[in-house]
Amino acid sequence: MKIIAIQKSALDGMKNELEALLELTENATRKYSPIFKGEQWLDNQEVCLMMSITKRTLQTYKDKGLLPYSRLNRKNYYKRSDVQALLETGHPYNINDDGFTDE
């Protein structure tokens, strides 16, 4: 183990810079938290695992407007609450073009 000795003033300077960086980070996070409102966002893989569906089925849900999503940097994200709502209503497996299920 190495022991490095530095002056107290240098240590205090580093501490102050780290505290300033932490404050900047917290301010940035606070600025965007109203956008998310505590909502958890899931990616394609997480939604497929949660719903036990394939990527193709997920694409069909998106195409039919059954599952809203947001796109960020060419990647789709889904609100956990929207996925939960779709799970609670049941999987619309065989969906016609008119939006009704085949039974």
What does this structure look like?
- There is one protein chain.
- Helix content is 54%, strand content 11%.
- The protein has a 3-stranded antiparallel β-sheet.
- Strand 2 and strand 3 form a beta hairpin.
- It is mostly helical and 103 residues long.
- The C terminus is likely disordered.
- It contains 4 helices and 3 strands; from the N terminus they run H-E-H-H-E-E-H.
- It has a domain of 49 residues.
| Overall SS class | mainly alpha
Strand content: 5-15%
Residues in helix, %: 40-55%
Q: What does the overall shape look like? A: elongated
Mean model confidence by pLDDT: 84
In total, how many beta strands? 3
Strand order of the largest sheet: 1-3-2
What does the main sheet amount to? 3 strands, antiparallel
Ranges where pLDDT stays below 50 over 5 or more residues in a row are 99-103
Termini separation (Å)?
Answer: 71 Å
Oligomer: single chain
Radius of gyration: 23 Å
Give the helix tally.
4
Order of helices and strands: HEHHEEH
InterPro entries: DNA-bd_dom_put_sf, HTH_17
Organism: Sphingobacterium hotanense
Keywords: Coiled coil
Pfam families: HTH_17
Summarize this structure briefly.
With 103 residues, this protein is mainly alpha-helical. Helices cover 54% and strands 11% of the residues.
Short key terms for the protein model shown above:
single chain; 103 residues; mainly alpha; three-stranded antiparallel beta sheet; 4 helices; disordered C terminus; HTH_17; Helix-turn-helix domain-containing protein; DNA-bd_dom_put_sf; coiled coil
